[in-house]
Amino acid sequence: MGDRIYFISDLHLGAPDYESSKVRELRFVRWLDEIKADAKILYVVGDLFDFWFEYKHAVPRGFTRAIGKLAELSDMGIEIHLFTGNHDMWIFDYLPKEIGATLHREPIEREYNGVKFYIGHGDGLGPGDHGYKFLKKVFANRFLQWCFARLHPNFGIGLADYFSKRSRAQTGGEDAVFKGEENEWLYQYCQEVLEDRHFDYFVFGHRHLPLDLKVGEHSRYVNLGDWIQYFTYGVFDGNTLELKKDGE
Asked: What residues does the Calcineurin-like phosphoesterase domain cover (predicted)?
């Protein structure tokens, strides 16, 4: 086991169709094979799946290669942290048990070698996006989750998967455009957090756009991009966090 910390986000496995998703899944599995030699910790920072909902005795079909490879890394002693995103917030206990991962629903704070990290998927943070913030509260409501689970999986998973793909298709183009620091909600959120306490790195996903921006005098905001268009990830070598592209 190595000493490097890896960050990856927004694979959206399952989208836009089975064939293209399988190609990306195999690329992800190959990447996991490559990093397992020097990885100590792996952060999967949300939206591993384009949709996921766990029933008590049923889960969505597919993704067996990715899930199995993550479990293999965990069995090797690599610490795995899995964040829920806005597309797979209905991960409950199945994946943490099968993968051996620690599940996070909110941003977390970590410190490695004196370097301070603030890590989260990024959805619903910062100003704006009030419609989604309301929907997130609805989707996170335990009673409403219980109600949805009363639907037969054939209907419930199919219905939710349809709306998940529709939502991503409607907003996907916006993610490819940098809006300027004054209009980037996560950048503004980093500025707000820094008013109270210091972090060297803010690491988020959700935005689907690889970004490495200076925030304040001594901090950086790193957005991990995605594995649909960019195939980017972050790696911390004990001193510096670097944003890299698979295959380069």
From this structure: 4-209
Query: Is residue 190 very low, low, confident or very high in pLDDT (cuts 50, 70, 90)?
Result: very high
Residue from 131, 118, 122 nearest 225 by CA: 122
- By the 10 Å C-beta count (0-12 exposed, 13-18 middle, 19+ buried), 64 is classed as exposed
- In this prediction, residue 109 carries a pLDDT of 98
User: Which residue bears the tokens 């790696």?
Assistant: 235
Q: Nearest-5° angle of CA 121, CA 45, CA 34? A: 160
> Among 132-136, 139-143, 155-159, 241-245, where is mean pLDDT lowest?
132-136
Query: Are the C-beta atoms of residues 92 and 54 closer than 8 Å to each other?
Result: yes
* 4-245 under CATH 3.60.21.10, yes or no: yes
Q: Is the peptide bond before 153 cis (omega within 30 degrees of 0)?
A: no
Query: Which token pair is 87?
Result: 């597309």
Backbone angles phi, psi at 227, to 5 degrees: -120, 40
Average pLDDT taken over every residue of the chain: 88
The Cα-based distances of 60 to 117, 151, 192, 225 in angstroms read 33, 14, 38, 25
Bridge partners, 39 (sequence order): 4
Q: Which residues pair with 243 in a beta bridge?
A: 234
Percent of the chain with pLDDT over 90: 65
